[in-house]
Amino acid sequence: MRLLIAEDDPKLLKSLKHIFEKNQYIVDAVCNGTDALAYAETKEYDGLVLDVMMPGMDGIEVLKEVRNQGISTPALFLTAKTEVYQRVEGLDAGADDYLPKPFSTAELLARVRAMLRRKDNYTPDLLRAGELALNRSTYELCYKGKVQTLSGREFQIMEMLMQRPNFAVSADEFLSHVWGWDSKVDLSVVWVHISNIRKKLAAMGAPAEIRFIKGAGYILEEGE
Fold this sequence. Notes:
The chain is an alpha/beta fold. It is about 40% helix and about 20% strand. The chain is built from eight helices and eleven strands. α1 links the parallel β1 and β2. The radius of gyration is 17 Å and the shape is globular. The model has no long low-confidence stretch (mean pLDDT about 85).
């Protein structure tokens, strides 16, 4: 797996490069947003690890431009920012995950493994379930011309459901795929994200329904 790391702190950049190379990743490392964008545009990477605050362009600007070009390379933000609205801004820019500093090496590697699973299973940019479509490049959910933008984790949850319509996906599967197998996140966060997706489906008038089946998990049912 090949990763692009963009981090403006030279010591942290060196440490990140060492951590990933020690864990069998091929790594390119840059220290500013302008270089990060130029490297990402080559489409040679399986994943992007981006700092938010960087000279030239910040990480969010970089990822927005990457997504505007239709490049769907999975991305993880590293940042000292911890306010909820700032995390939302990063996820809405098209990130798959968001890891605040300081972080443990084990958690960083787990988040990157979870992020790369989407790359491993990549199929066409547009995933369909009936008349409902999920755009993997823009993280948009579309139904009959109406569009709702998903956050990074909402996107991953919806992608799992749409890849297996009418098949139950357990909360544990969501936690493992979206947050990483060794994440300490509570099961309730899955319900919160699914609740948000349901609201977005309703806002578009989409007939698809995410239903919970006790003992099995969540299932996407396609309406008429």
